[in-house]
Predict the 3D structure of the following.
Amino acid sequence: MKIIDAHTHIFPDKIAVKASGNIGAFYGISMHTDAKVSTLLKQEASIGASGFLVCSSAVTADQTAHINDFIAASCREHPQMIGLGALHPDFPSIIDELDRILEMGLIGIKFHPDFQKFAIDDDRAIPMYREIAKRGLPVLFHMGDRRYDFTGPQRLKNLMLRVPDLRVQAAHFGGYSQWDEVDCLPVDHERLVFDTSSSLAFMDIEKAKRLIDHFGVESFMFGTDFPMWNAQKEVERNLRLGLTDSENKLLFADNFIRFYGC
């Protein structure tokens, strides 16, 4: 079965161990491994993945260009990597950086508003999203955390109403720890897809199946959230959903190919 991992994170070697530890501390989770490129390559090889989406978040505006340079360079060195750029609403030259992101061959933008400290539907971010949508770039949002009010499903619904041509990958079944609220989002697999990362270890499997039935399997993509979890165990968790062979083909690769065009 073809596998594309729709959600992984990488950092330069000199900060990869510390960055992984900081993410684990934020969530109170013991991380599976570090976030080095070499470690990711081993993890993805263990599940036979033919491609994997790599990203990082610009926690502060001044990190933006450095992250984009690193992700683009990593993708050039490892063609199986598919890169997303980073942006921050406070970055002073968003249009120029978006054009540079496109020139570097990155295929979308990653946001983690809980880290970046802005609400998904924040007024100051709307012009940025419109510029992203104008260029045909999808966005990947970290979604959900009951401790904060930045990434709840209702905020994503508000954004999608305000910027109707924005295409979104909503991580973690659309709302880590807020799965009961995900139904408010539109059923539209051309415009909105979900990944399964950092979810199936925590949510009731019947709840996961209900969301897949509600939105359609065409709206879901396999993701590991590397370096948080063991990739092989994440494959096993996804297979426990009991989907048919044709549905698993969609989940593990075909939906990603359709949504991102690669």
